[in-house]
Structure formats: structure tokens, C-alpha cells
Amino acid sequence: MRFILMPFALIAAALFAMGLHITGTTLYHQAAWGQTVATVTDVSPFTEMHKNGLAIERINVALAYVVDDVPMTWSGKGNLVGLHEASIGDKVKFYYDPGDPSTLDTAGMKGWRGMLLILAGTGGFTVFYVWFFWLRGRSVR
């Protein structure tokens, strides 16, 4: 019986590891990266088509910001920096990599409650599986 549930336990462990990686990366950006406020200077919506026919509405953005008294600009797909909606003139708080200030991230934990639920569910299932099928009933020597 213990081997029948093994694929589910491995999937749960993998999801738990992915959730920890995402959460850890976000917390690292918030703790170790610098912070700046960028002004949205241009927004242009576009539709991105995937191979499966799914169309996703996205935006291209241009940002102007200052790092260590040096004016900088960034432009590209908004989702690359965590921006999914914006209007010209919006002020957005960003974190930037001190080694490469052109690398931006909002480090916004969107959906963090769902992430906590996934972490709790997958971690709990994995711990219960290991305890129930592998550790329970073993004597301590």
C-alpha cells in the first residue's frame, strides 16, 4: 500500500519545494535588493497567443526610475517585472538588483494566501505519508 501513494507523495514534495523556492526568492529580493519608485512612462497592451490557442492579454511598459542618483529606464513585457496592469504616470515600488540595477522585480507576493495553503497541504501530506507508511511502528534503538 505504501508504494501506491508514492507518486502522490513525490508530487507533493516537488510542489512543496517549488513553493519554498518562490517564497524564498521573493523574501530574498525584499531583504537584499535595493528599493526604488518607478514612473510608468508608456503602456501598450497586446495579446499573446500560445501554441495551444490560448490568448493572454498582456502589456508592454516603459519605466523611468533613479538608482543612486543615476536616472535609468526599462522597457519590455510588464509581466517580466511583475507588472500586469498599469497606466501612464503610475508610481510603482520596485526592488532592483544592486549588482545590475536594470534587473527589476515588484517582489509582490500576489496570491500568497494560496501559496501558504499549497505549502501547508503538500508539506502536511508528505510528512503524514512518511510518518504513516515509513516511520510508524518502528522502535527507537
What does this structure look like?
The protein is α+β, with helices and mostly antiparallel strands and 141 residues long. The protein has helices spanning 6-32, 112-135; strands at residues 34-49, 55-67, 70-77, 91-97, 100-105. A five-stranded antiparallel sheet has the order 3-2-1-4-5. Helix 1 (6-32) packs across helix 2 (112-135).
Notable traits:
2 helices, alpha+beta, 5 strands
Radius of gyration: 21 Å
Question: What topology, given as strand order, has the largest sheet?
Answer: 3-2-1-4-5
Number of helical stretches of at least 4 residues: 2
Helix and strand run? HEEEEEH
**Approximate shape:** elongated
Total strands: the figure is 5
Overall helicity: 25-40%
Nearest-integer average pLDDT = 86
What is the percentage of strand-forming residues?
35-45%
End-to-end Cα distance: 26 Å
Q: What is the makeup of the main sheet?
A: 5 strands, antiparallel
Poorly predicted ranges? none
Backbone structural class? alpha+beta
Gist of the model:
The chain has 141 residues and is α+β, with helices and mostly antiparallel strands.
Lay out the secondary structure.
Blueprint: H1 6-32, E1 34-49, E2 55-67, E3 70-77, E4 91-97, E5 100-105, H2 112-135
Antiparallel strand pairs: 1-2, 1-4, 2-3, 4-5
